[in-house]
Amino acid sequence: MHLIALLAAASYIKIQVTKIPKKYDYKQPISTNHACIFIVPLQKDIIVNTLVKYIAIFVLSITTITVVAQKKERKGEFYFSWGYNKAYYTKSNVSINQPSLGNNFTFKNVTLVDHPGWDEALFTLALSIPQYNYRIGYFIDKEKDLAIEINFDHTKALFKNGQTVNMVGTFNGRPVDSSFVFSKTGTGTSKNYYYLNNGANFLLFNIVKRQKFKNLSTQSFDFDGLAKVGVGPLIPHVENSLFGEKNEQKFQFGGWNTGVEYALRSTFKKHLYLEFAGKLDYAYYYGLDVYQGKARQGFGTLEFILNLGYTLPMGPKK
Question: In the listed set 22, 56, 72, which residue is the last one of a domain according to the structure?
Fold first, then answer.
């Protein structure tokens, strides 16, 4: 289609030639109703006509190709990454309500620890067993610096085994304010553990702003900074045994979390990238299953994340 248009345009280019007086100044142009051209000797008119026509086609071709190339550029950019994390938690108050047992108490200032997994046997375990994370995002503007993102972290939050915890409230219908060793190695009613072990599972829907570090980028590598903020649901896997009574282990909706994250990304040849991020998150859990009751708790998280990802242009053409 573009070639036909070019040929049609070129066919309208007419070169006006005339027989030249011997004393005519060749540097002066003659204006015609078709074009303003310089006078050339009559015996060269065929060559000039052909040459000018080809030059016109060439110029129009370059212009058209440039426009078409620009139109073919994709407006958006899709990316996906997978990696692993290390998490540190604030202390947490965990409230337990078991009405049928006469229990309504709180474990005060409990120490939580993570369980990375990747530091033990990363290449011999399924990819989803260690503390993993993934990011799926799409840059929505033509500058490719504003994105929406699904941000998921499979973190694990466990009561530190063997710690002394303070228990305040009502237990077996009686007031209680005492401390004891919270240990999985005990027997009978002394056996206690409380795990979000198959995931504290932070899911966020983020807004992402990218800053391109053009002064650091090269022909092969691009360097960017990405600031993220979001909010989303918690989908924990709850596993616990309190005073010898186990809950029914399962995934469940467990509350809400909000977080901010900043990532440094290095992209090789516009597609493959490595991303290191730091993240702050606050999660509040409620309605967590325990034996004949529910639990609630809140805690903050400092997380460090290393992801490998891939990005590619996508979406409507400009």
Answer: 72
